[in-house]
Amino acid sequence: MIEALYSQLACGxxxxxxxxxxxxEPLPTNDPILTLxxxxxxxxxxxxxxxxxxxxxKAVAGNIERIRRGDHPLHTAF
Length: 78
Known about the structure:
With 78 residues, the protein is mostly helical.
């Protein structure tokens, strides 16, 4: 599948790709996909926006307040 993505990008059947998660992490700096001019590689920040940071900050603040009151924090595995 990785080869198919590279092939389609290299021949122009795909105009471009923005990649945020990779088949191997960290992605080796010599990975051939990084040589293509129509590829943008991001380090897990593709979904980061001002709005998402605001939501994260509110969730963290809310959990701090919950812990202060002796409640369990929300959105955790415990």
